[in-house]
Design goal:
Structural class: mainly alpha
Shape: globular
């Protein structure tokens, strides 16, 4: 397959484009473990770039809380549940911002690509999709993914768990009247299992479709088709990735808690403020690591399924 090379102004990272038809590949089960290990590795190869970009992304993700949290605090102090208008306003703000931040996800994915290809890039390049007028395509992809997500859940609930909706409404009524919740319907665990499988597929679908638009300049509908096909072809490696991630997360949490406990005890012996000064950066570091790993996994998943021989088509890396 031939690829046209398009180099973005201000970034030495080439963008793949010019292909109207794409072929997705199926990978072996071990690819799922490779996505995880590569996702962990990538952040430490160019930490200044990727951890700095992750910090900007975290700040951007937290901005809506400056509006929604004061509204929730005010309602709590008033001692009354938030009105329908307040709830709808909070939901609308959250949904709108969730769409507006998708171009930043694409920009960070491009940073990961630049890091992997040893191309020059800057932390502020996560805003490149907005600067170059590509935000609307990415927002359109976000809307389409949202429709796929809601549609998939609706199909599963209607097909396998019709009693779930009635049970949920009864549980809400019981909670409001301070009564015990009703017994779980017989289809509850079947529905939960199907939803977990769908969530696993959705993870692959989202990574592939976002990578196709952000890195391969695909149309929104083309990226959706690639995401659907690519995720279906790679359910087994996605399952291996999920199990590997669960084990890695358990180990990471145990290590983190041990380190935080030891540092906290030592710092507390000296000063309570020192304990805060030690633990807060530790938690921030864990959050940034989570972001770099997540997008590193997304990049390598996309590259394995849709990237073909992109690396062979790339020009020699530029000096940063």
């Amino acid at each position: 397959m031939r690829y046209g090379m398009l180099c973005r102004r201000g970034m030495g990272m080439p963008i793949i484009g010019g292909s109207d038809s794409m072929a997705t590949r199926s990978r072996g089960a071990g690819a799922g473990f490779g996505w995880l290990t590569n996702g962990i590795r990538v952040g430490f190869e160019r930490p200044k770039l990727l951890f700095g970009g992750a910090a900007l992304l975290v700040v951007a993700c937290l901005l809506p809380s400056l509006i929604t949290v004061p509204m929730q605090i005010y309602a709590a102090k008033a001692g009354t549940p938030p009105s329908a208008a307040t709830s709808l306003t909070t939901m609308a703000i959250s949904l709108l911002y969730a769409l507006l931040i998708i171009p930043l996800y694409a920009g960070y994915l491009q940073l990961v690509s630049a890091a992997e290809r040893q191309q020059p890039a800057r932390v502020s390049d996560i805003f490149m999709p907005y600067r170059q007028g590509e935000a609307w395509r990415l927002i359109g992809l976000g809307l389409a993914n949202f429709v796929v997500y809601i549609g998939g859940i609706a199909i599963i609930v209607l097909a396998a768990g019709r009693g779930i909706i009635g049970w949920y409404m009864q549980a809400l009524a019981a909670q409001a009247s301070h009564q015990l919740p009703p017994a779980l319907p017989g289809s509850f665990w079947t529905t939960m299992a199907l939803l977990m499988v769908f969530g696993l597929w959705m993870m692959g679908f989202y990574a592939i479709s976002l990578g196709q638009v952000a890195l391969n300049r695909r149309s929104v509908f083309g990226a959706i088709g690639d995401g659907i096909g690519g995720a279906l072809k790679n359910v087994l490696p996605l399952l291996v990735f999920a199990l590997s991630s669960l084990l890695a997360w358990i180990v990471a949490i145990i290590v983190f808690l041990i380190v935080a406990l030891l540092l906290g005890l030592i710092a507390r012996l000296i000063s309570p403020w020192l304990m805060v000064a030690v633990l807060v950066p530790l938690y921030i570091g864990l959050l940034l690591l989570m972001f770099t790993v997540m997008f590193g996994v997304m990049y390598h998943l996309w590259r394995d399924v849709c990237g073909d021989d992109v690396a062979n088509a790339m020009p020699p890396p530029l000096a940063a």
